[in-house]
Amino acid sequence: MRRALYILAILLLAAGCGQTAQEKQSRKIQALILQLESEDSEVWTLALDRLVIIGEPAVKPLIARLGDFNFMVSGRAASALAEIGEPALVPLMTALQDEDEDVRRHAAIALGHMGHKAAVNTLIRTLKDKECQVRREAAWALGAIGDERAVGPLVEMVKRNSYYPTTAAEALGYIGKPAVVPLIELLESETEMTRFCAVLALRKIPDKRAVEPLVRHLKDESCSVREYAADALGNIGDDRAVKPLVDALSDESGNVRTYAARALGRLKDSRAVESLIGALNDTERSVRASAAEALGEIGDTKALEPLIQRLKDSVDYVVSETADALKKITSQDFGTDYEKWKTWFEQNKDK
Questions:
Q1: pTM, 2 dp
Q2: CATH number of the domain that 69 lies in?
Q3: Is residue 32 predicted with pLDDT exceeding 80?
Q4: Domain membership flag for residue 276
């Protein structure tokens, strides 16, 4: 395949003998675009780099390949256009109106990677494209650009609860603080998916305005919402969340208990130690492992003896997390050897 592409590229270049400089450049561009089909990363990467150097003359031929049946070629063409930058901006915005769904989709991807705010309004309009995958990539691109003008339209996309509301939610998370208040309002929706999208976005934004609303949703009827609410509170790092997260260690869902333990580890508050020690005996392996990890993050020596006992757990990754926690707290390393840890503890517990 690589040899065939080289031969075709050489033939294209050779055919340019006796032609104008513009015609020769056109053939060179076509030869390089042909090399984007290569499975050899060195070949297509070098071709892509050369197309970026050529710049504006390569824009139109690259846009023509955005709808290529070979998704690798269309993706590489989008990457080249994004790197070319300003000269490709207007042509890519125009391509969002193309009849071909794949051209529109890859144009949105390229604009997202380019990150130019001039594309925001056009991408907002594309959120109403008839094809759901185009809408998804437009939402992603708006998140990548990060302009607050997109907050309202993305919130509406979440509310519509049609295809890919989570992509719109993640985009709001990337936009950050301008999206916090609308996301808090979405938490009060009667629709589970809308509330889930809100916590999904809020866990990416460490903003203390969300603490109390997220604490309330540790009691949400949806376990998925409770999981991500716990995760978001751990990311925010506000000590108002400690007691509610400790309470969440008793949630009926093992996943919620796991997220609560991990969040408490990130908060590193000693008030959680006793409850996390209790969680070392949880029936769910993921909770036991997360409790051990959290105790290692907090670093309180009261956890040493219970952690050493947990080295006898029947689940390997629980034992591994426990050994890591012991190493963090003590600066000793006896691996997963229960007897060595027990001996060391007996010799040092009164020091």
A1: 0.85
A2: 1.25.10.10
A3: yes
A4: no
